Amino acid sequence: MNNHEIDYKLYGDDMQFVEVELDPSETVIAEAGSLMMMDDQIQMETIFGDGSSQSGGLMGKLLGAGKRVLTGESLFITTFTNVGMGKRHVSFASPYPGKIIPMDLSELDGKLICQKDSFLAAAKGVAVGIEFQRRLGTGFFGGEGFIMQKLEGDGMAFVHAGGTIHKRELQPGESIRVDTGCLVAMTGNVDYNIEFVGGIKTALFGGEGLFFATLKGPGTVWIQSLPFSRLASRIFAAAPERGGSKGEGSVAGGLFDLFGGDRK
After folding, report:
1. Are 218 and 170 contacting, i.e. CB atoms less than 8 angstroms apart?
2. Which InterPro entries is this protein grouped with (predicted)?
3. What is the pLDDT of residues 141-172, one digit of tens each?
4. Which of 84, 154, 198, 244 could form a disulfide with 106 if both were Cys (CB 3.0 to 4.6 A apart)?
5. What span, in angstroms and rounded, lies between the C-alpha atoms of 248 and 257?
6. Taking the model in full, what pTM does it have?
């Protein structure tokens, strides 16, 4: 085993957090801003990249950090190390409503491909890199960008997704079409491509975008029912325009007027 062996426990249902148990000298890495709480005797450190190539000198650190920049993440990642004598705990929370999915990379042939913003935390030694798509169509028309994250190693990793999570086992030759934003993760042996939605009316007025992700087995796919991009677009569409009325036609709007609120 190259990765630290960590134990964990999930709490909650739709607003989950994961509690990681660290033995002395064990370390977990996490995205900046994902920390919820931690015991004493846990030391925090900010490092370049993901910590999997710290022994490679400055160049290794810069390459790791560069990979994270390409996926839209920060140059830095945070490590949490148990420097005490007994077991300690550190907890990480999802940034929006949904589920946290524990992934044992040793059971997934050491590789998992996921959406670039779904990584939450992992055992130290898990490499967080980039996965360039093989097809030009996938790169430019995938809806979620042409780069996805690649998690490699033999330890535990945690990814988060919105809404309800559906795990689908694809048999050899079996294929499904998924909205590009709903794809959370897949094992490295899944064939991934983009398929154009046929028909001008369907493409322009169907409301589902112009392209689907086509996934072909064998392999495992994780799908989310509520991508954050979809949730954010609905909230943005429902928000009042700047300078417009607030809560017009609603009980809240009436109460706003009753107490002399400024509707500008």
Report:
1. yes
2. AIM24, AIM24_sf, Trp_RNA-bd_attenuator-like_dom
3. 544 445 788 999 999 999 999 989 999 999 99
4. 154
5. 10
6. 0.78
State the Cα–Cα distance between residues 221 and 190, nearest whole angstrom: 8
CATH number of the domain at 16, please.
Answer: 3.60.160.10
Neighbours of 134 (CB within 10 A): 10
Q: Provide the pLDDT for residue 132.
A: 66
- Cα(39)–Cα(42) distance, integer angstroms: 6
**Mean pLDDT, rounded, for 22-34:** 92
71 in a structural domain: yes
Has residue 163 been placed in a domain? yes
**Is the four-CA dihedral 243, 227, 112, 33 of positive or negative sign?**
positive
The reported pLDDT for the residue numbered 136 is 46
Q: Are strands 156-162 and 119-123 parallel, antiparallel or unpaired?
A: antiparallel
Cα gap 74→59, rounded to integer Å: 17
d(CA 177, CA 216): 9
Q: Under a CB-based contact definition with an 8 Å cutoff, are residues 106 and 95 in contact?
A: no
Residue 247 lies inside a defined structural domain of this protein: no
E-strand spans in 190-242? 191-196, 211-216, 219-224
Burial of 210 (0-12, 13-18, 19+ CB in 10 A): middle
| Largest separation between any pair of C-alpha atoms in the chain | 66
Nearest 5°: the CA angle 202, 205, 206 is 55
pLDDT at residue number 255: 44
pLDDT of amino acid 54:
46
Q: Residue 246 pLDDT more than 90? A: no
Query: 17-22 and 175-179: which strand pairing?
Result: unpaired
**What domain range includes position 184?**
7-237
241 neighbors 209 (Cβ within 8 angstroms) = no
Domain assignment of residue 254, yes or no: no
